[in-house]
Amino acid sequence: MVVATDLDFVKDVLVRDFNSFHGRGFYSNEKDDPISAHLFSLDGPKWRSLRMKLTPTFTSGKMKYMFPSIVEVSERFNQTLGEILNEDSDLDVKEMLTRFTTDVIGTCAFGLECNSLKDPNSDFRKYGRMVFDTSGIKSVKRTIMQLPKLAALLRLAPFNKEMNNFFLGIVRQTIEHREKNNIRRNDFMDLLIDLKNNDTLDDQKKIKLEKLTLEQVTAQAFVFFIAGFETSSTTMMFALYELALHLDIQEKLRYEINAVYTKHGGRLTYEAIKEMVYLEQVINESLRKYPPAVALRRTAQEDYKVANTKLVIEKGTTVVIPAYEIHHDERYYPNPEKFDPDRFLQEVWKTRHPMSFLSFGEGPRNCIGMRFGRMQSRVGLAMLLKHYRFEISEKTPIPIEFSRVTPVLGPTGGMYLKVMKI
Predict the structure, then answer these.
(1) Taking Cα atoms as reference points, which of 359, 337, 372 lies closest to residue 293?
(2) What is the CA radius of gyration of the chain?
(3) Distance CA 337, CA 339 (A)
(4) Which CB contacts under 8 angstroms, 24+ apart, belong to 52-57?
(5) How many CB atoms lie within 10 A of CB 196?
(6) DSSP 70
């Protein structure tokens, strides 16, 4: 295994020599476990073809279409939170935020009201928990999956039959219902249905790309779901944690949110959210201090000679890029443990190495849903900070102890904060 610590080398791997490192080396089993064959885990031509088909799904124009759905869920979130606060002000914000993002993704990726805000044990929340469950046999399975050849020999299924049936069933029903009744909602599911029914064109090579099968549509909807709810809820959770520790920053941000709301007639519009510049800085600083993926990995597709050295990385070797360590390196972020949103003022950001911020990866294999994730986090935080004040309570973990078993960076227990209605 090669650990990349030099940022120019990181740029070579992720961007400049991407063709030598386009694979992630994760295991998937399309035959026995269709939902495991999604964009994140596929490599080679399958990945490239799928990425090209899906990239238009995440343009800013498409985000604008989905924006009202997210705002609608955030309003329900506000209402639910208000009801809960009548009983208790000391809340596990991680669980609340996960229910919010689950409902957002359920609406945008499946066109369904998941209702996990009202019912924490809704099906979507249940299967969402299952994906990130690390107990017993699942941790053994995960370990074997680190050895893709062995996993393939054992025909290991990353996700069980029950989960496959649930997601395949929901996608099949949704597609049938929309096609029969000619319904369009301008969400992910509409775009996936278009890819299922129509050929697409590879812009570079001007060749036709095959239509997506029902299984492929389901796998992509599934990965939007798991990647979208966990990472965004974690990002918002860490932001609220830091804002509870730094009430001056929280007040400054609330002032900006209220000013923008007032300017736009008390409504949260797509244009309004773009004007919340300090909110974006707070989110970026949270992502710097707590990157959801603590490391990125790529696999050498051929023998690769490292620039300006005699070193050759052999084909098949895994290259690990330690994002968390880079984000906490004093050379790029002086006093790295300090929470300082001003690190992300445009003029300050420009002076740093482009590979010093890796929360969404970088290069052709960066996070395809970055725009959506950012939008969802902005809407959630704007709504929360307009209506609630967050402070630390006796149960707040200070300092945070990180879980060693979850795939996404998170605390060992919940994240309890004192929440007060404004």
Answers:
(1) 359
(2) 22
(3) 6
(4) 52/200, 52/202, 52/203, 52/209, 53/195, 53/200, 53/209, 53/212, 54/195, 54/220, 54/368, 55/368, 56/191, 57/188, 57/191, 57/192, 57/368
(5) 16
(6) H
Low-confidence ranges of the chain (pLDDT < 70): 114-115, 134-138, 201-207
The residues facing 90 across adjacent strands are: 418
Cα–Cα distance for residue pair 145/165, rounded to 1 Å: 22
Q: In 10 A of CB 322, how many CB atoms?
A: 18
Domain count, the chain: 1
CA dist 82 and 80 (Å) reads 5
Q: Are 239 and 83 in contact (CB under 8 A)?
A: no
Q: Are 286 and 238 in contact (CB under 8 A)?
A: yes
**Which helix (DSSP H) or strand (DSSP E) does residue 392 occupy?**
strand 388-392
Handedness of CA 385, 389, 393, 395 (dihedral sign): negative
Containing domain of residue 239, as a range? Answer: 2-421
**DSSP secondary structure letter of residue 16:** I
Kindly report the CATH number assigned to the domain that includes residue 170. Answer: 1.10.630.10
367 is in an annotated binding site: yes
Transcribe 194-263 into DSSP letters.
HHHHS-EEETTTTEEEPPPPHHHHHHHHHHHHHHHHHHHHHHHHHHHHHHHH-HHHHHHHHHHHHHHHHH
How far, in Å, CA of 4 to CA of 198, rounded? 41
What are 107's two structure tokens?
Answer: 């609406």
Question: Could you tell me which of 259, 255, 247, 249 has the C-alpha nearest to residue 281?
Answer: 249
Provide the pLDDT for residue 142: 74
The two counts, helices (H) then strands (E), for the chain are 16, 10
Residue with tokens 């496959």: 164
How far apart (Å, rounded) are the C-alpha atoms in residues 236 and 231? 9
Full-prediction pTM beyond 0.85?
Answer: yes
Q: What is the pLDDT of residue 201?
A: 65
Only one residue has tokens 């090669």, namely 2
> Tell me: the pLDDT tens digits for 340-378?
999 999 999 999 999 999 999 999 999 999 999 999 999
Backbone CA torsion sign across 168, 169, 170, 176: positive
